[in-house]
Known about the structure:
- With about 300 residues, the chain is α/β, with parallel strands linked by helices.
- It is built from ten helices and twelve strands.
- It has a six-stranded parallel β-sheet with strand order 2-1-3-4-5-11, with helices on both faces.
Amino acid sequence: MKKWFPVLACAALLAALSASAADSRVEGKAVTMILKNFTNPFFITVREGGEAAAKEYGIDLTVLAPLKADNNEEQTHMVEQAIVSGADLVIMCPSDTMGIIPAMEKLEEAEIPVINLNTRIGGDRKLAKTFVAIENFECGYESVTRLVNMMGGKGEFIILEGVSGAQTSIDRVKGAHAALEKFPGVKLVAQQPADYNRAKAMDVTQNLLQAHPNVRGIYCCNDEMALGAVEAIAAANKTGQIFVGGSDGNADALKAIRDGKMALTCHTDPYNQGYQSVVAAAMALRGEELPDLFRVSIKVIGKEDL
């Protein structure tokens, strides 16, 4: 019971906050949401959640993302555009945790409040009203624990990281390492970034499988990389021999799990992340106090859960 109490308590708090926010709309306020890209299904779903909440709360929401996925320079330019256009609030999902800090300081100087979404803004100073996200360490920890148990607690293991500098990847990898420490029979033979990209993950996995042909488990920090790993495994005629875990719970990953090509994914509820970021924006625009964290729940999903 101790394990679940913080999650249940936080869920109850979030429900109460959402109910409070629903008491009144925020008419005529302009909010800019800046995401990492529009190529990953995760962020398309985040956008859908944000747009649904904006309609409910009467917010004029503009959703932007770099043309070049996960590009800090483009995100910085979008922040500058938001300042010039007179945005009342910015929801920021940074591609580069530390690289985005100067842009956030510009928003602070312009007295435009910020809601931090999905990936934490770095630095020692608090540059956002709140952080709307899952607990990424928990996602990595729970996913790898279940993945290694599916491996029988032994064998060679690979981790595919996301974009360098992205706190989501950093925290998921930390959680993965913490889980691996519980299994002395598992050997981590490689850890390499694949930039949250399916095609790059396929190339990286092909190379790693040549160097480590006895690998039995691969944990990927998102589903797009996991699906790329699945393609590489199929090309190597190893389908069914290697347990692959991802994160996000997108439709392609769920299908791959049903088909026996992936072992599991961590459902990170992107729709609710987008939705709750706009709920938090509405509360901030009304001058309400916000908690430091709007925590969105996760669930590790394997074939039996479907």
